[in-house]
Amino acid sequence: MKTRFFIHRSLRIVCLLAVVCSLSACVYWMRAYQVYLQMSEFDRYFDVAVSDEFSLNFKEPIMLSEDFVALSKLRASEETVIADGKKWRYWFRKVNGYRKVITPEVKFYSELGFNKENKLTRWAFSSLFLQIAPPKFLEASLRSLGGADINKAEMQLQGNTAAVEKIAADLPKRDAVVAQLGKPFQVIPDKGQEIYVYLFLLDSPHIEKGYEERALSEVKLSFDKKTQELVRMAGRFAGLKISINYRKFLDEPAK
């Protein structure tokens, strides 16, 4: 009986590991999953700082710098060694349909900070990114990941907005956003909205073969035709997909 129980338990463990490892890059995904679990106790494991940029600080770091290369299949634009570790900055530049940088230049960055143990301690976004993802909504979106649904096929998290405290804030207006980002690549009419499409190209010194398309970020901004408010943002940044429906976080959603 003991032997039979041991074999049965061992098979369960092997099957579980097989499922986890089948997600690709087993060890890397397991550490990412641990960070996901931390999200359910957001204030215990994270804090947010907002100045010219938005910073998410990790109180008990887990993910390693190598995890991001393994998962995204590309390198940062700039990798700098600092006194207490290192920082990686990913620069995204606005381009046209031929992937040529548009002038005057429009760009933003996402920055990762690591300690001396190569563990992620800080994730920051520059001020231009905050034009399309205002700090209060960006923080609420991150908080909603606690208990989020996992889409295994797409490797995405769908935030639980019902569990997040609602926000009393104004949504960005179309003219203010366009003043910062400039003319969009494309405008798509969609019922009561207009979707402004912008293209940004990641400046990366190395991209793993077969993953070249990850360098191009197609950012879709949905504006309400009546109010001209930005109601949704969706895009992929260095392999990371972000989608925020701003109305779901509002204290009194617009009608």
UniProtKB/TrEMBL annotation:
**What is the name of the protein in this document?**
Lipoprotein
